[in-house]
Amino acid sequence: MDITINKQMVQKSEKEQDFTPVFKINNLNLWYGQDHALKDIKFDIPEKQVTAIIGPSGCGKSTFIKTLNRMVEMVPIVRMSGEIVYREKNIFTPKYGVEELRTQVGMVFQKPNPFPKSIYENVAYGPRIHGIKNKKVLDEVVEKSLKGAAIWDEVKDRLHENAYGLSGGQQQRLCIARCLAIEPDVILMDEPTSALDPISTLKVEELVQELKKDYSIVIVTHNMQQAARISDRTAFFLNGEVVEYTDTSTLFSNPSDKRTEDYITGRFG
Ligand SMILES: Nc1ncnc2c1ncn2[C@@H]1O[C@H](COP(=O)(O)OP(=O)(O)OP(=O)(O)O)[C@@H](O)[C@H]1O
């Protein structure tokens, strides 16, 4: 009996090593003042796959994803311990510039947040900040990014109109284009479809499937069906801990922890 369990465990751990990690998270703890919001988080996030973060409200999903680009440090009462290694470098070492990290690790938020500028300027903004001035080069970046975000055909004849004139779903894809324009390695998405209608949601989900060919994606979602549809691996968070992290099909069809089973079958949350 013991031998069987050990064999299964070895097989599982071998399977779980079967990818190139883009992030390695080691014993990450985070406190908001006295509130211990992330507890001993330890797992690796694969490159060029979609990793979903699921769990009930308040379990630490948004907090966790915002540690990956150090955005969480904007909250003054935050304290952290542990390590997040991005491409072999600990992102908390003082010499690691946060601007450099955020160029590599882009983020798309829950509510589409375009700038009050034209569609073109929204996408050109990041490359301009990074020193690209040549109009022809900017035109190319804008077109490539809008195509990458599957919105080019809808906006190519109105590039100089205000982005606020787009629908919510179009605005979210514009924000994804804005993120692509600075050529990130990883894209963090914090509930990117929760403010969208079902058709726009489907478009963003299809887009995520396309984007994972070139980018590593981490997506927080309230929606378990969405995690099951679009992710390769899923981490189930509860009360600031990772209860289970494995490939998505296993997590939803054969969870190893009773709490995961209770959550995915709707017994709580
Ligand atoms: N800026 C903050 N200041 C203090 N506490 C915070 C802050 N942000 C989050 N928290 C606390 O940290 C815990 C985790 O919150 P977080 O927003 O990460 O959870 P979540 O799983 O993303 O929730 P939801 O699904 O409702 O968005 C909660 O107890 C929350 O109250």
Q: Can you characterise this structure?
A:
This protein is of the alpha/beta class. It has a single domain, classed as Rossmann fold, CATH 3.40.50. The chain is 39% helix and 25% strand. It has eleven helices and ten strands. The strands form two sheets. Strands 6-7-8-3-9-10 form a six-stranded mixed beta sheet, with helices on both faces. A hairpin with a 2-residue loop joins strand 9 and strand 10. The longest helix is centred in the N-terminal third of the chain and has 15 residues. 40% of the residues are buried. The N terminus is likely disordered. This is Phosphate ABC transporter ATP-binding protein.
Based on the model shown, name its key terms.
single chain, 269 residues, alpha/beta, Rossmann fold, 6-stranded mixed β-sheet, 4-stranded antiparallel β-sheet, disordered N terminus, binds adenosine-5'-triphosphate
Query: What ligand molecules are bound, each kind once?
Result: adenosine-5'-triphosphate
List the strand order in the largest sheet: 6-7-8-3-9-10
Task: Report how far the terminal alpha carbons are from each other.
Answer: 35 Å
For this structure, what is the CATH homologous superfamily? P-loop containing nucleotide triphosphate hydrolases
Count of runs of 4 or more consecutive helical residues: 11
Kindly give the count of domains.
1
Kindly state the percentage of residues in helix: 25-40%
| Low-pLDDT sequence parts | 1-14
Instruction: Please trace the helix and strand order, writing H or E for each element.
Output: HEEEHEEHEHHHHEHEHEEHH
Q: By helix and strand content, what is the structural category?
A: alpha/beta
CATH architecture: 3-Layer(aba) Sandwich
